[in-house]
Amino acid sequence: VIRLSAMGDVAMTVPVLRAFSLQYPDTKITVVSRPFFQPFFDGIPNVYFFGVDLNERHKGFFGLMRLFSDLKKLNIDAVADLHNVLRSQVVRTFFALSGIKVAATNKGRAAKKALTRLENKILEPVEAMIERHCSTFEKLGFPIDLTNPQFPEKAILSEEITAITGGKSKNWIGIAPFAQYEGKVYPIDLIQEVIDEFAKNQNQTIFLFGGGDKEIQLLNQLRKQYQNVIVLAGKLKFKQELEVISNLDVMLSMDSGNAHIAAMLGIKVITLWGATHPFAGFKPFNQPDDFCITSDREKFPLLPTSIYGNKKVAGYEDVMRTITVENVVRLVDSSLSKD
After folding, report:
1. 14 vs 44: CA distance, rounded Å
2. What are residue 157's phi and psi, to 5 degrees?
3. At 333, is the secondary structure helix, strand, or coil?
4. How confident is the model over 181-197, as pLDDT tens digits?
5. What pTM was computed for the model?
6. Is the peptide bond before 304 cis (omega within 30 degrees of 0)?
7. Which terminus of the chain is less hemmed in, N or C, by CB atoms within 10 Å?
8. Cα(280)–Cα(116) distance, rounded to whole angstroms?
9. What does 156-215 look like in DSSP terms, one character per residue?
10. Is the dihedral of CA 262, 125, 335, 17 positive or negative?
11. Are 151 and 228 in contact (CB under 8 A)?
């Protein structure tokens, strides 16, 4: 199973592979991805991880030949290319030429283009990426049923982690306020208001997620001096962050990797959508539609304008300001009251 990047896209493969492992317990899966993502797959039965080295051993065309050679030694019977980019296409072609059955995920580019184009837009949900991955496995003779998904147990947190988080005696709310592109990021002043509202309730702890020096600096500003708001970015290893996320009661996220990480762990995920839209097939797994708060299409009828949030449209810089703080807080509170 090939899926090299990005974080959210790799996380979206996890529910599919977990279901596969339970429904086909006699089949071994080897996940080919970047070493950083290995913790995603820990604990899934019959799933093994192969860390690809795109900087040295598996770099360039000859590196991809070496990757094929390395994987061929594992006696692979079939290849599911869930990435379907040039690198993975080259590797799966080598397998196909050697007589191995291969299948690749159809990304539905035409339907996504129709959804995001500015003229003659077709505002209809396209098939979810997770369903597309299931179709890929079905082509290989492995139909997958996702109707009753199973999720891992909540991680038992080590003393090293609880020294930062404290013990859990109240609701834990995760907030991941960043995304790769500005078009998917809730304005910083509004996310500050959201945090201020949550911090008023001493019966809940708010954890702020992010990465990189710039984001950590911003998170520390958002934290202010609240005792029940904790910046996790830069304090824990990636696997430890996953263990904390598995203990959250709800995650508030942009349309970004953290949303899919929380969803793959069975956590409630409330997402905020700006230039992008859940109709594009990237709604977090197993979440109700009303957990997706979208920007106002009456005021901004060209939405969605992008699949990934990277395209800018003049006059659409502030679409996410149509998502009110009150609505965000209400939905998070409502999700907690349903426990």
Report:
1. 9
2. -85, 135
3. helix
4. 999 999 999 999 999 99
5. 0.97
6. yes
7. C
8. 9
9. PPPHHHHHHH---SSEEEEEE---SSGGG---HHHHHHHHHHHHT-TTEEEEE---SHHH
10. negative
11. no
CA dihedral 188, 191, 192, 198 (to 10 degrees): -170
pLDDT per residue over 33-60, tens digit each?
999 999 999 999 999 999 999 999 999 9
Separation in Å, CA 271 to CA 178, 197, 287, 308: 12, 18, 10, 14
Burial 136-175 (b: 16+ CB within 10 A, else e): bbebeebebebeebebeeebebeeebeeebeeeeebbbbb
Closest alpha carbon to 247 in 338, 314, 139, 173: 173
Contact 16, 144 (CB under 8 A): yes
- Residues forming beta bridges with residue 173, ordered by sequence position: 206, 250
Long-range contacts of 80-83 (CB under 8 A, 24+ apart): 80/1, 80/2, 80/104, 80/105, 80/133, 80/136, 80/137, 80/140, 81/2, 81/105, 81/136, 82/1, 82/2, 82/3, 82/13, 82/133, 82/136, 83/2, 83/3, 83/4, 83/5, 83/9
CB 4 within 8 A of CB 34: yes
Question: The tokens 């994987």 sit on which residue?
Answer: 71
Length, in residues, of the chain: 339
- In this prediction, residue 338 carries a pLDDT of 76
Residue type, 209: F
Using a 10 angstrom Cβ sphere, with 0-12 exposed, 13-18 middle and 19 or more buried, the burial of residue 99 is exposed
Cβ atoms of 322 and 276 closer than 8 Å: no
Tokens of 259: 């949303």
Which amino acid is residue 108, in one-letter code?
G
Please name the residue that has the structure tokens 């009828």: 301
For residue 242, what are the CA distances in angstroms to 10, 22, 239, 336?
14, 22, 5, 20
